[in-house]
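Sample A.
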Amino acid sequence: MIYLNRVFLAGKIKEGPEIRYTPQGKGVMFLTLQFPSETLDGVEIPHEDVTVRVVALAEEGEWEGIGEGANLLVEGGIIQRRWEDEEGVRRRLEVIAHKITPL
């Protein structure tokens, strides 16, 4: 059996980018992409806007000038994070970006 974990997303930045640094000094960028309602044969399918958290390695100053509202194309893979909060276990799907291209 062959498995493929690859996604391509084109959306606009809703939140971020926020850059944090690992103890080794590597930059890690976090942002949230937003996607508006879909249409099918010209008919809008009502739903809440979809948001996806994206994580990527970032070099110093690499994403200066890119902010909320900017359009991006993201290529990467999906991971699931799990943590326990006061209400029990929570989960979130995230995209680990291998390539990000401003549109």
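Sample B.
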Amino acid sequence: MPRETNAKTILIVGAQMQIFATFFFWLARFRVLWLASHNEYNNQTKTLMRIMSRFAETILAPNQATEALYLKAGVPGKKLVLIYPSCKSKLGIRSPNSAFIIGCDGEIGIEHGLGIILRSVKNAQDILGTIKLIISGNVTEKNQIEWLSQELGISNRVQVAPSKGQGWMAPCHLFLVIRQRPSALPLSLAAALSHGLPIVANDMLNHREFIQHNKNGILLKDINSDILSQTIINLSRKPEWMDELGRESSRFAEERFSPETTQEKIQAVFLH
């Protein structure tokens, strides 16, 4: 139910607020926008969201997987607008003689993927020797990571460095996204693509939106520490192929995440 162009605009975040506040702001003649969430909802919540979406003019979705959740809830597709997070391309500076440096986001818990990554580093260190793992971003289990690293004998190979920025990716050669349950993709994935990093991930529908197998990364259908470590070793031995994958990552990011593209889409929504 569109409002006039000069109406005040409000962006409502979170299903609870979207269900209970949307109608009141609509009555007050606001243009109501929603920010879609990746959370799974029960049938009652989906029904209420579908009903209240009638009073929302536009629903902003950060990725196709989130968009699909709202479509499955019965929200009209014409209300959904896909706007990827903005991330400026910035290629890292990597020395060919340095350690083979791998990056991953620490918000993925040990039981849901990070444990596999740590064990793969242990498996690969005997072959690569100079391998290093940087765990950064929103690190949720710092103590457990340090404990497991110690138990595996790789504490000297692992750097845990929580960070709100993405500059920590600059020296990385490879970025890993290993998740054993559906969840929101970390924003660091967009940053890794923008830094021109090849991506290795397990094959999930959410991942296919951003990772094209053998083009800007590798999608592993079966995932365990042995398979992942062998993939890391194989890539480390093919620097020219890694450079090619990285260039494709950078091109992909420029198309999807450039500030100019994001700004144009946001302006189209808010100035409509």
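B remarks: Residues 136 and 162 are 5 Å apart (CA to CA). The chain has a mean pLDDT of 88.
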